[in-house]
Amino acid sequence: MSENPTDTAEPLVDDEELEVQASDEEELDPEAAARRQAALAHVRKFGDPVLRTRARPVDRFDDTLRDEVRRMGAVMIDAIGVGLAATQVGILHRVLVYRVHQQSPVSALVNPEIEWSGSGLETAEEGCLSLPSVHVDVERPIHVRVRAHDEHGEPITVEASGLEARVIQHEIDHLDGVLVLDRVSRSQRREAMKALREALPA
Ligand code: ZN
Fold it and tell me: What is the CA(170)–ligand 1 centre distance, in A?
């Protein structure tokens, strides 16, 4: 998630605030703002067909993969995001990185699969690094269990709740070519498209 909410987070603040913080460049010092702009230049934006393409499972856990993960983590951090999917940087691999607390290390999930979702749903605002200026309310399960591998090929299971669960679901959507625009009401989508038209050069 991104400039945005889902791609951005900090402890003890809600998604909405996070997103606002992330997208408010006036709050960043000039160096951080420049770093953010440089990172965002690597992120594919709405209209790029890669964002609508389903990513392929990873079958080689090699240095190339670990390098991808490292670079994705750097882009996410510099862009002040809380999550990033490989498709967002034009790589059609089922890989995502996320970090919902600033002091935590970046986590990578390779070939993630949602194994279980709780029945409880929650609606919260999300942004997306690929959808500048878009903030929409998305309903998602609060709790999920995800099976994946780390970048070394070790199987891992993540039990996630709240923002962490939201970010992971948002990024897995990207790996399936799904955007938050697909998960909101028609009126929200209309507003979002208007914001996108203003934010993205024609
Ligand atoms: Zn996104």
Answer: 6
**Would you please indicate which residues are annotated as catalytic (active-site) residues?**
171
Q: pLDDT by residue (tens digit) across 168-186?
A: 999 999 999 999 999 999 9
1-10 per-position pLDDT tens digit: 764 455 544 4
Tell how far CA 176 is from the center of its chain: 13
Rg over alpha carbons for the chain, rounded to the nearest Å, is 16
d(CA 192, CA 115): 31
Of 3.90.45.10, 3.40.50.300, 2.70.50.60, 3.90.1150.10, the CATH number of 15-199 is: 3.90.45.10
Residue type, 189: R
Residue burial 114-137, b: 16+ Cβ < 10 Å; e: rest: beebeeeeeebbbbbbbbbbbbbe
Give me the residue spans of the domains in the chain: 15-199
- What global pTM score does this model have? 0.88
- Distance from the CA of 141 to the center of ligand 1, in angstroms? 17
What is the distance in A from the centroid of ligand 1 to the CA of 155? 25
Angle subtended by helix axes 30-40 and 63-78, to nearest 10: 130
Query: How far is ligand 1, taken at its centre, from the CA of residue 118, in Å?
Result: 22
Closest by Cα among 35, 50, 95 to 70: 95
